[in-house]
Amino acid sequence: MAWPSAAFPAAAAGNEIDRLVVDAFTEVDPDFAARLAGTARAGQWLTGAVPNFLRRPHGPGWALVGDAGATRDPITASGITHALLSAELLADAVHTGLTGGAPLPRTLAAYGRRRDELVRDHYDYTRDYARIAAHSAEEQALIEAMSRSPHHARAMVGVFATAVPPADFYTRAGFRELFDYLNDAAGLPLGIRALRLLLHGAPEALSAAPRALADRLIAARLGPMGRLLLRSARPDRTPRTEGNHR
């Protein structure tokens, strides 16, 4: 459970926070909330904040991996994945530099670029997501559709956890399938109905332009996740590559 730091009831008494947590769980998992209601808290509630930074990860005789080089809010739990992957990138760079494959300064510079390419997009996404902004009605409709589709639910969690590349998740075919899981019975925002028409209703001979437009409009309605998708991939295309982001 998480609240924006400005809204977290830090000054409230322990019992009041207990009630707020149980009430929050009631909205998403009533059975689990009922189990919590019959328990007693074993320790103190802890809160904290983590500074976000993205440092240059190498220099003469030194290199940084993991949180030493890139620290972000723990809300996406992506730090450990990127720590392990960046350590592997650094080990390869040092090995190449020390065995004569290329000068060490050059291999470390290449490590820095690859580390930035690895973490930059998800680093920005984490900072966006950590604001815990309220979902729009369109975001809620699409997230609910993902929860109704086993494939999309797994893929979305994979993107969140950095186990699935955004380019593998954000494809035109995948989102056309996702729109089949929209819950019409609950009523859909006008924007989502229009997007579905763009994806499914255009004649095949005229489909390329409106469907390409729908790709970007869909991502624009997914909040921080959509901004990550737009930065990281283009639907039905090879993911873009960029140079160093410093």
Textual characterization of the structure:
There is one protein chain. With 246 residues, the chain is mainly α. The protein has helices at residues 14-28, 30-37, 79-98, 104-129, 137-148, 150-160, 166-169, 172-178, 190-201, 208-220, 223-232, and strands at 53-54, 58-59, 62-63, 70-71. The chain has a two-stranded antiparallel ribbon. A hairpin with a 2-residue loop joins strand 2 (58-59) and strand 3 (62-63). Helix 4 (104-129) packs antiparallel against helix 11, helix 5 packs across helix 6 and helix 9 (190-201) runs antiparallel to helix 10. The longest helix is centred in the middle third of the chain and has 26 residues, at 104-129. The radius of gyration is 22 Å and the shape is flat. Residues 234-246 have low confidence and may be disordered.
List the keywords:
single chain, 246 residues, mainly alpha, two-stranded antiparallel ribbon, 11 helices, disordered C terminus
The class by helix and strand makeup works out as mainly alpha
**Cross-sheet strand order for the largest sheet:** 1-4
Give the overall average pLDDT: 81
Low-confidence stretches: 234-246
How would a textbook summarize the main sheet?
Answer: 2 strands, antiparallel
Shape: flat
Beta-strand residue fraction = under 5%
The counted number of beta strands is: 4
Order of helices and strands: HHEEEEHHHHHHHHH
Count of individual helical segments: 11
